[in-house]
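Title: Prediction job returns without error message
Component: structure pipeline
Severity: low
Priority: P3
Assignee: unassigned

Description:
Job completed but the reporter wants confirmation the result is attached to the right record. Sequence as submitted:
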Amino acid sequence: MNAFYLAPVLAFSLSLAALRAAPLPESQKIDELLAKDWAKSGLKANAPASDEILVRRLYLDIAGRIPTVEESQAYLRSTDPQKRMRLIDTLLGSDGHTSHMFNYWADILRLTDNVKGRLTAEAYEEWLKKQIAANTPYDQMVRNLLTTDGGVWDSGSTGFWHRDENKLDHLAYTVQVFLGTSIVCAQCHNHPFDKWSQMDYYQMAAFTYGMDTKGNGVDVIRKQKPKQEFDRKALAAMSPEDRKEALKKMRNERKAAREEEPASAVSREDLQQVRSAMQDVMKPLRYTNTEWNEGKVPSLPADYKYPDGKPGERIQPKTMFGHDVTAKDGQRGIDGFAAWMTDPQNPRFTTVIANRMWKKAFGVGLIEPVDEMTDSTVASNAPLMDYLSQLMVEKKYSLKSFLRVLYNTDTYQRMATAEEVPLGEAYHFTGPILRRMSAEQIWDSLVTLTNGNVDGSIEEENTRLHQYLDDLSFFLNTVKGKGVEGLVTIAKETMSKRAENQKKLDEMRAAIDAAKEKGSTTAVADARALVKEANKLRQQTSNDILVSLLGEERARELRAGYRPNKNDQGKIQRPPLTKQQVSSMTKEQRKEFMENYRKNMATVKGMATRASEQPSPARPGTFLRTFGQSDRELIQNASDEASVPQALTMLNGPICDSISNPNSKLAQILEKATSPMQKLDTLYQAILSRRPTPDETAILNRVIADRGDKAVEDVTHALISGSQFLFVQ
């Protein structure tokens, strides 16, 4: 189709309704603060947006997708003066909002399916979706993330700590996400552009360093008491006599503690036997637990070069700014740190989340970048930033309540500003910023065209996941309940079988060694068989112990390991044809029909779920990654830049086939149209949430005349690849 026919037009005639007063007093306050800034800067507010633009914007911003034809038409036909407020409330309470905000937070928290295995990742993802759906207050959600410990069966939030193996890296990401402060440079040296020193970094890291995620799983055999630590710096400051006396006192205290320990009836040989027997059994529990170790702090690196510390010195926790952390009686250090971070008096915590949500609604923050705040940072509208921070506290960190206020402002319902804000210059928010959809919004909008409203497909409870987590928890509690003595008994019961198996392995190994000496050509194959047999016998022993602990059924489930739910998208059902229809076809016709049917259904089923239910993140080369979905390596690493692969995907990929094949929702709607022009009119409503303008109608009539039956396909291609579809206006 000639590009002249449907060149994307951002400025088109609109039937504008007069703006009504903002229905919420908090929204009115925001509008007043903005109006003062406009007057001061000599600016005027953007014109009001039409209902057609507004309904599409609300669905994209709150639910992450375009509305269906039925949804947009219901809004446009409504004469309810409060229809915008009612739609905002409906969308904020929808599954679509949960899906959309999950994508948003997954980008910030860098959620990935590969964080210590699929089991932990899925539990973490499910936990986050539940927090969003329940509108858990943001400060509480952050405290939950920071203070969580135990197994993944206790809470999926443990995935937060498993995201980064390096504890120092984890601290940098934590501070950047929740306090909007980039300190990563100070991990290796004093920050070159901010006041933070390397000592500041290690003092902050001391708050979280005790959260341990390493190791080979849960030690159910015996935990060694931590060695009594001594303060090297304090010892170095003592006189030789005092230092000698202090060390003598520590040694005596350790000796007394050992003597007070009750004698164990379990020998060292028995313990070794249990450890050997449980080694393979415990593998499923590896990296699925976190454990807080009170008092565990980092040491300065060996190359530390600043005068305020010495290499290897153990560093005690201290905040970088704001008031000191004061842990309450009986409170863990990490609990005190979490309380400090989420305190409304913290100078950055509330400001950062209020600014993030403002950017979420309007496209740019009052403070940019949102996570690189310094002492000299000033918001583009300081009174408004102060009010938004106050509002966040008043709303008790309910993000839905906060966003509800923003979306109900008069400013939000104005036309978007299409001019790009120059880097370093302030934007005065005469309306939202025109922005391209995120990769997830594009995908979810195409899914809507293909399958209609699939918000209800968001999985809230992964049954298979929880079955397996229950088995893991039951196993751990059973092992702990048996105690060391009980485990020794079980290990001894299997000892004869282990010895018999070992004898078989020794005989096989001797035979292989003899064959090698004779130069047997089958020696390599025999060696492989030995390895296979050894694994089999080892697994048998592990299975025997599992059965002894759990019983056959639960042992079988645990042995199988965690398997994600398998959807049936690949299974194509037979079409509902009558016998008469089948008999009227030749063999070749039936074959051709079935091939086309399977192809069409496979394409539609491939777009049956929203982006939040896809692998996280999507694999390289897939639609979502092609359109800029974050690789989750950096915080908010998504891109909205156009690219050649994106254009090729829209032009030559299966997208158009998916939304226009006979089984798609769009095709079913178009089938009801009685004329070519009516089909194109419906196409505009489905893709752009509006009817074509008179000028566009004239062009469309020429397309129909030139292209005939191909007109719908051509216009579909033009619309979904055009800026009016791809941008949030």
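Comment from assignee: result matches the submitted record. Residues 143 and 338 are 5 Å apart (CA to CA).
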